[in-house]
Amino acid sequence: MSPTQTAKYVNIDVYQPEGLKKAQELGLVSSGLVNILSTRYVLEASNIFTLDHRGRLFTLFRHPVDRAVSTFHYVQDTVWRRNHNDLADITIEEYFKSGSGENNWVTRFLTGTTNRALEPADLDVAKEILRRKCVVGLLEEKAESLSRFERMFQWRVNSVDQDQCHEKILQWAWPLKHSHEHVSEGSEVWNLILKQNEYDLQLYEFAKALFKYQKQMFP
C-alpha cells in the first residue's frame, strides 16, 4: 500500500473465540469489509461464513520436527527474556521428555481436538479438511506457494510493491527467526520429537502429495 492510500481497520479480535462470535453476530464477512482472516480457531471461524460468502483456507506447511524445534527455541528465547524463568536452562531433549513439547499440533488445530488422545479418525478428518478446503503451500517451496496464493485469491499490488514484497518474504531474514543448532534426522532428539508428532508427520506427507496434485489448478 502506498503512503497516499488510506488504510482501514476492523476492530474485531479474530484470534479469540469471543471475537469470532462477535464477527458472526455483526455479519463481518457479508459486510465486505474484510477478505482475509488470520486465526488459530478454524472450526469457530467457519461459523462466520455462509453459503453466499464462502471461505477457503491457505497454509504453509513445514516438516513437523523442524517446526517443533523452531518453536522451542522461539519460546525459550522470548519467554525467558520477558519472564526470566527457568526455561533458559532446559535443553530441547528435556523439554520434550517433560511432555511440554508440541503434540500433533496441526492435526489438533484442524480438528479442534485438544483435550484427549488423537485417534486415526482424527487424522482422516484433518486430511479431508485439507483436501476439500485448503490451498496448500510448502515452506521448502516458498516462491511457488506464494505464487499460488496470489493467483487463487487474486491479490493485486503494483509491480514495484509486488517485487519488494516478494523479496522481503523470500529473501530477507525473517524478523522472528531464531538461530539454533540443527536437529539431525535419526538423532535421539529427532526421534523423541517425531514420537509425539506421528499424526502430524502423516499429515505433512499428505500435504506434500496435495501440493503436487494442486499444481493442475495453476496452469
Written overview of the protein:
By secondary structure, this protein is mainly α. It folds into two domains: 1-55, no CATH class; 57-217, no CATH class. It is built from eleven helices and two strands, in the order αααβααααβαααα. The protein has helices at 17-26, 28-31, 42-46, 64-83, 92-97, 105-111, 120-133, 142-153, 159-170, 188-195, 198-213, and strands at residues 57-61, 134-138. The protein has a two-stranded parallel ribbon.
Structural class, judged by helices and strands? mainly alpha
What are the low-pLDDT stretches, counting only 5+ consecutive residues below 50? none
Query: How many runs of DSSP E, i.e. beta strands?
Result: 2
Cα-to-Cα separation, first versus last residue: 28 Å
Instruction: Please tell me the overall pLDDT.
Output: 82
User: What pattern of helices and strands is seen along the backbone?
Assistant: HHHEHHHHEHHHH
Cα radius of gyration in angstroms: 19 Å
Strand order of the largest sheet: 1-2
Largest sheet: 2 strands, parallel
As a percent range, the share of helical residues equals: 40-55%
Number of domains: 2
Fraction of residues in β-strands: under 5%
Write down the overall geometry.
Answer: globular
